[in-house]
Amino acid sequence: MKHTLRLLFLVSVWLLYALAPASAQSGYTISGRVTDAATGEGLPFASIAAKGVTTGTTADVEGRYTLRLRQRADSLLVQSLGYQTGRYAIANQSSQTINARLLSAATRLQEVKVYAKGGDPAYRIMREAIRRSDQFNPARMPAYQYDSYTKIEGYINNFSQKRRNQKRPGPVGRLLGKLPAITDENGQPAVPVFISETFSAFFARTKPDKTKEQVLKSHVTGVGVSDGGLIAQLTGASFQQYNFYRNSLLILQKDIPSPVGAQWETVYTFRLKDTVLLGTTPCYEIDFTPKRASDLAFSGTVWIDTLQLGLSQIDALVEKRANINFVDELRIEQEWELLASGVRFPTQTRVMIDSDEPTPRAPGVLVRFLTSASNVAKTEPKEVGFYNPSIELADDYRKTDSTFWQRVRPASLGASEWQAMRVVDSVRNVPFMKVAGEVIRLGVLGYKPLGKLNVDLGPLLYSYANNNIEGHRFRLGLRTNTGFSRKWLLSGYVAYGTLDRQLKYSASAEYILNRKPWTVIGVRRSHDLERVGISADNIGGNSFFAAYSRFGTIRRPYFQDERLVYFQRELGRGFTQTLALRNRSFDPLFSFAYLPPAGDIDQTIRSAYKLTEFISETRFAPDEVMLQNDNVRVSAGAVRKPIYTFRYAVGLRHVLGSDFTYHRLSASMKHSFRMGVLGRTYYTLNAGIIPSTVPYPLLYTPLGNESSFYVGNAFNMMNFFEFVCDRWATVQVEHNFNGLLFNRIPLLRRLKWRELVTGKVLEGNVSTSNMALIPATNATGQAVDGFQSLSRVPYVEVGYGIDNIFKVLRVDAIHRLTYRNNISPAGIPVTPFAIKVSGWLAF
């Protein structure tokens, strides 16, 4: 999932924020600016608090702040990462200015002049530091572990001030102004809408690369989110890993080159700024900036240990000019410590994401992350099975004593953070916010909880359809949740068509035998209308396309009765094994017939059949992160390593009335990789064979797409059921340049469009025995609908397109290069060229 689950979570919270103030405080107002005492530069996001008073604020990106107090305090405390804490007396007056000048925790040394041939001496230092990176890179340790504390805060701000053209705040801003709030760094109201704290034990090893996070305790408070296990897993250490010794960092689905990675000299310009003391360690202070302003890259400062040339501290910034949606600024501040083993480790990381304005009068969003690692230790690798699953949630993760969080926090919460925790509870209990939260959850999850019944209604996407067979199709679905049982998951639906007046249904039950390792057994019984060439097997997880396929003209429809029993278990090392026994019937509503298999005593032409098959599927995804969402597991995606799937099905003749013995083998590989500044490539390979003689509905039908929408796993210029294969191989490739060209064109750069290319190839054929299995007419003399197969020429389509149009739209121009004059079996001519659109929210 291109990290889809986490993306949907962040986007859903954001959308809620945009639909979600401040009570004016009388008393004392303190304002000013926090600067570096040596350089005079503003210190962004410095923490300002009044001693003895639970009120505080944070400086803006230029170090400016405003703090309002109801009662006078003794002194003002000002803190910033890498600087000594400043203390300033507060005068007994209602309004005053305190400009804080903080001394760096890095003590300045005497001036050092370095002379070198060939340019700035920073390059010599960086070259040697990167040469030694393997010595200090924590990813090179055989194994390590540490205790992790993570805190995430989300705020809505910039909604009460006048917007562009001196217009009043919009209706959303006026609504937000009526909610409880705190005062932000600009003296404006800010609504805290999400705060989480998570404490975990984190383990990692190499050869093979494995990580495991044991989420021990978690607490989440937010608008539109519940303090559930899925959120606890998403807010832990697994998704806050920032190792600048890697060649690139994956942030918000973007590969950003590291200034201390392999592309350091290709992407960045360096300048030696000074030599300073960080604690007791003398360090080179080196500024870096992208060579090309249009590149997606960091700018900032890195501190390199002068004695060992190892990374000591880094302050990296991605500004608005970078092609990241909704982000005005992204900053990462990270401190590295030298372990006893000689390896360096990031012990504290702060990430700040400040959003831009989606529309001229929209509010802004500020999100802060803090990750702290303690008790870091180099260890012996644990057995590979220990790291499975990669994220594990303790059964008592919600239970803590009154002093637990004070013990595990790296430092006490500031006054503003305490106030934010109290205010967020008030905000989420506002009736309007409760309703907005339910609407967003319904849109994202597709299910509506039915309160004390412990069942969910949905998915709403499948509730209605209209087609030529059923007329108006209405469907009602239900499933149980963990309130009903933590072992059983029951689900089902009933559907009815006003035209065919047929009742369809499905009922399933799944029992969780074990959560560690994940082991389930389930059964399903269903009766529904299906269509040849579009099934759950080839549609995959594309629920929108599955819903769309129920609309319009359904060609080659049939009724299917299905009985399914399955068993699934995690075997470790990324392996998941599924075994299933399925019995299904094929009752066509179109002209269909086939000849009985050779050797069958009854050689009467038939038009329906039954099949019993045993299915074995092995899935190997060594890099995939699986999350537990109540009684269902979901994938958070794989980043570096491919996902392999091997599937074998064997038909069992005479078992439960089965008419055929057949074999079907298939294998697939799905992967993506980064090509430096050229962007990222995604590809899928698939191949299979059916060395048996069976009716064509049991052969492989590549997924076509007759809609105006682009479908990622379909052949978008191929009609439904245009080709059939019993031997096949497919290649599907997409390369996204991430704005490599458009970012260099001034008029297009502001649009943040991203160019891409696609290509899809299908090679396959059908054996003569399977071609001969279809008679010219059926038992009543009607002509039988046949099928087409590929010749020696493969099917090929290529495309080019633009995505990120208005941040949500994608447009693809697709050319069909072969079989351009083909007529599908349904008599529909193909279209050699088309423009197709699609849309999703992406960073």
Automatic annotation (TrEMBL):
The keyword Signal applies. It holds the Pfam family CarbopepD_reg_2. Coiled coil: none annotated. SUPFAM superfamilies: Carboxypeptidase regulatory domain-like. The keyword Membrane does not apply. The lineage of its organism: Bacteria, Pseudomonadati, Bacteroidota, Cytophagia, Cytophagales. This is Carboxypeptidase-like regulatory domain-containing protein. Keywords: Signal. InterPro entries: CarboxyPept-like_regulatory (IPR008969), DUF5686 (IPR043741). Residues 1-24 form the signal peptide.
